[in-house]
Amino acid sequence: MNNHSPYTGKYYPSTESTKRRYLEMNRRLDVLQYRRERLTHELHAINAALFSLNQQMLRDQEYKQLSLQ
Predict the structure, then answer these.
(1) How far apart are CA 37 and CA 52, in angstroms?
(2) Range of 61's domain?
(3) Into how many domains does the chain fold?
């Protein structure tokens, strides 16, 4: 009989061989979820830096246009 934890999304099968297999799969799932969280955080930081740089470039362009007048 397979049991499913509703809180973690992990499966806990009954036989030893499948139990080891699912434990390894759950370990890999944890690693991938951690990596996804880190990459999501990094992507947010990159997007913020791109937005800031774009704003700075627009301000610089406006300043150049004002100084040419």
Answers:
(1) 23
(2) 3-68
(3) 1
